[in-house]
UniProtKB/TrEMBL annotation:
Highest rank taxon of the organism: Bacteria
EC number(s) on file: 2.6.1.16
Protein name: Glutamine--fructose-6-phosphate transaminase (Isomerizing)
Parent sequence residues shown: 249 to 614 of 614
Keywords noted in UniProt: Aminotransferase, Transferase
Length: 366
């Protein structure tokens, strides 16, 4: 059942080229020129008239939601808010018929997310679900939605569901942009064509496995980690930190890299490694500064960079190179080395990666 892998988590990490293929299937047509998300086409009026999108989710799904904000704002020019479902439900939210609420949940059964959906519906918002489990409560309770179709995820730490959620959010944003005309046909085609190549890029990233396994040995006994990123890499930093915490029980914090100087930089010393997500995007020059700031304080750095990077290579202690993609698609690529890093650190510590202590795969109580 684990397909020859020692743990479900590793199996699910390695499945991503094929789960992403399943997730994309039927959604990119005409050689990349058209994006087809039926939930958008069937509700075109709702999406054309939306004055705001509110995303609700928990945990890893909330991190995907934060990426959804960047994607939808950037491509569709609709303001987006992202809320923890547990906070949203008790926050006396302000919503009406022109709001679209997107609920993201792998299991489709998370109690707080379901409660948030019910509130949104009672206030007249249009509720859209992004889920993995066909026929689960969230797809049943929402007005429309999209399945991520990545197959059953057994490991408690979400891996293939996260990349599937981010892929669906990218396609959803592109489909809305196509409908609204906020992206040109050429821009849509660039996204569509790259989406089709993502499974093969992911295949390539997975070749970092042995290097990451070796690297993990150096960091197994660190007590704290910082994960830093900017723009599309900021939610990836949060997700990388969560993954390390939940399976290795090492304290890790994800932070927007430029917020460092407002406090956390005080923590940096030789005992505090930083994982810096620094692909070649429009914030690259900015994050180079942050890398230098960490180095100047004696911190060790593992950097995720784009193939061929020359600047950060000379500053960081270790670099993991990933293929170049347009920045809106980079989170799918840059999150994968972080999944492997947490996996190997947890394994080195002898932890049960598939069933970490105190956690359940689906949180059906509040
Ligand atoms: O099933 P859901 O996506 O609603 O679950 C939400 C969180 O409980 C979940 O993502 C959790 O944070 C994972 N264990 C993270 O790996």
């Amino acid at each position: 059942e684990k397909g020859g892998y020692p743990h479900f988590m590793l199996k699910e990490i390695f499945e991503q080229p094929s789960t992403l293929k399943d997730c994309i299937r039927g959604r990119v047509a005409e050689k990349g020129r058209r994006i087809i998300i039926s939930g958008v086409m069937d509700n075109a009026e709702k999406f054309l008239n939306a004055k705001r999108v509110v995303i609700v989710a928990c945990g890893t799904s909330w991190h995907a939601g934060l990426l959804g904000k960047y994607l939808i704002q950037d491509m569709c020019r609709i303001p987006v808010e992202v809320e923890y479902a547990s906070e949203f439900r008790y926050s006396n939210p302000v919503l009406d018929e022109r709001d679209i609420v997107i609920a993201i949940s792998q299991s489709g059964e998370t109690a707080d997310t379901l409660a948030a959906i019910n509130i949104a519906k009672s206030m007249g918002a249009f509720v859209y679900g992004i889920s993995n489990v066909v026929g689960s409560s969230i797809p049943r309770e929402t007005d429309s939605g999209t399945y991520i179709h990545v197959g059953p995820e057994i490991g408690v730490a979400s891996t293939k569901a996260f990349t599937g959620q981010v892929m669906v959010l990218t396609l959803l944003a592109a489909a809305i942009a196509q409908l609204k005309g906020t992206k040109s046909p050429e821009e849509i085609e660039e996204i569509g064509k790259t989406v089709n190549k993502i499974p093969s890029y992911v295949e390539k990233v997975l070749k970092l496995n042995d290097k990451i396994e070796r690297l993990s040995l150096i960091y197994t006994y660190a007590r704290n980690f910082l994960y830093l990123g900017r723009g599309y890499s900021y939610p990836v930093a949060l997700e990388g930190a969560l993954k390390l915490k939940e399976i290795s029980y090492i304290h890790a914090e994800g932070y927007p890299a430029a917020e460092m100087k407002h406090g956390p930089i005080a923590l940096i010393d030789a005992e505090m490694p930083s994982v810096i997500i620094a692909p070649n995007d429009h914030l690259y020059e900015k994050i180079v500064n942050n890398v230098q700031q960490v180095k100047a304080r004696g911190g060790s750095i593992i950097a995720i960079v784009t193939e061929g990077d020359t600047v950060i290579r000379n500053i960081a202690d270790h670099v993991l190179e990933v293929p170049e993609v347009p920045e809106c698609l980079s989170p799918i690529i840059t999150s994968i080395p972080l999944q492997l890093l947490s996996y190997y650190i947890a394994i080195n510590k002898g932890k049960d990666v598939d069933m970490p202590r105190n956690l359940a795969k689906s949180v059906t109580v509040e």
